[in-house]
Design brief:
- There is one protein chain.
- The protein starts with a helix and ends in a 12-residue tail after the last helix.
- Helix 2 packs antiparallel against helix 3 (52-69).
- The chain contains four helices and no strands.
- It is mostly helical and 88 residues long.
- The longest helix has 26 residues, at 25-50.
- The protein has one domain.
- 73% of the residues lie in helices and 0% in strands.
- Keywords: Membrane, Transmembrane, Transmembrane helix.
Length: 88
């Protein structure tokens, strides 16, 4: 039951920090909004078919796998293609 607090804090932390990503703030917000609306629609469609427990568990596992997969970009990224900002 206490994990709901953590999930909400991470959700609001990610959604409020969209403006800190590189690129145009309006494009970042539009992409974030599109995926959020798509996720809400997918939840509405799958909730009656799959069930609340399976949908919640699956989304938590998918989110965890996505977070863990970001380590591959750090390990296997080509350093010559990275953009290095100076004096920022």
């Amino acid at each position: 039951m206490n994990y709901r607090i953590v999930v909400n804090m991470v959700y609001y932390g990610l959604s409020l920090n969209v403006g800190n990503l590189s690129g145009d703030i309006y494009v970042n917000f539009a992409i974030n909004s599109f995926f959020e609306f798509a996720a809400y629609g997918m939840c509405l469609l799958l909730l009656n078919r799959v069930g609340r427990k399976w949908l919640h568990s699956g989304s938590m596992i998918l989110g965890g796998a996505a977070c863990l997969s970001t380590i591959f970009t750090v390990l296997y990224a080509n350093e010559s293609k990275n953009v290095h900002l100076k004096n920022v």
